[in-house]
Structures are given as structure tokens and as C-alpha cells.
Request: fold
Amino acid sequence: MRNKIIETVKQMVEMEKFAGNYEVFDTVKRGTKKTGKITLEGVAKKISVCDLCPLAKTRTHAVPGEGNPKAELMFIGEAPGRDEDQQARPFVGRAGQLLTKIIEAIGLRREDVFIANILKCRPPENRNPLPGEIVKCSPYLVEQIDLVKPKIICALGKFAAQTLLNTEVPISKLRGKFHEYRGIKLMPTYHPAYLLRNPADKKEVWEDIKLVAKELGIEIPRKKPKD
Ligand code: URA
Reply:
């Protein structure tokens, strides 16, 4: 299923390019023409009124992302869930609370990092994102990354990691080492929602996060985080 989605996105992008339709890659540019200056707030505003895909009709709120505009560390998840859709904020449900603990375990606060998702709107019933949704939505994330310029991206879960790295390699094989995305070091790790179902894998995430902290020059606390 996952392989099929990646393949279909690739085909769609190639088809759009072949047809000379660059408009799909221009999501962020549109709406910034007046000032010409793109800011994180500007991107968030455009996301909040975006209607480029059918998720605009089913969402309660779009969830642009939040955090330190100069964050050295950026977390990227899959898509908002029910709590995020209600509150217009990323990672505020149970998985989000675990993510907050992970961030705090390396001595940072949520406000120190930037948290975003591949998709800015909740897919109905939390189904997997569709290729067309990824194509329409990903320019927003690219713009956010280019504005924040983090030193490290931590991709949360299989979907974010495989989408950003354009690979079908399983997350269990991707995690544990740095990759590169747009010249930025990227550490894939398990999604906090997965950890809620598979707490035994928390130790792997702790290993990944320690590598991230080390790379950022953060002194690593001796104790591993509790649930
Ligand atoms: N899961 C995600 O991938 N993102 C969120 O914002 C919340 C849950």
C-alpha cells in the first residue's frame, strides 16, 4: 500500500511536470505576491485558508505547525489527528504529550523546537495521506523548512521519514542514523503514536534522540525519559 502511494506520487509529479503544469509546486508562492516576502506567519495564514485539496472540506482547522522560528531542531510528523484538528495545533493529543516528554528529556522545551507535519489537514478517520494531498501540501512544509533553517530534522514515523527521504526502506532500517534532506541532517525515528502501542521500542527512540542531542551539542541527561 505504502509503496503504491510513493509510486503514485512520483508518477503524478512527473505527469504534472511533463504537462508543463508547475502550478502544483507553487502552492506557497501564491498569496505572497503582494509583499513578495515570505514569513512563517504568512505561510501559516495561507495554510489556514488553503483549499487546494478535498481535506479543506472535512477539516475543522488546518494545522500549520508551531514553534521557535529559529529552531535548530524541527520535528515532522504525518498529519494532524482529531485533537490537533480541533485545536489547530500540532501534536497536542496523547502522542503529542509523549513527544513533549521526548523533547524535554534532552533538556529542551516545545517552544525551543519547531513542530510540523507533512499534511496540514486531518485526513478523515486518520486514514493514510493520499498522493494528491501530499503533492498539494508539501510545498508548505518545504517553505517552513527553508524559513526555519533547522540544523536537524527529526522525522517522526514511517510516513514522514519515507516521504521526506523518497524511499520505501522500512523505518526500522532508516532510524538510528542521520540521512540528508535539502542539505539538512535528518534523523528518522519511530512515531510517538507507534510508541504508545509498542512501548518496548522507546529505547530505540531514546538512542535516536541522544544522537540528535549530541549533534546539537546538547549535554545528554543521564536518565532516560519515563512514560
Ligand atoms: N500525529 C501526527 O503525525 N501529527 C500530529 O500533529 C499529531 C499526531
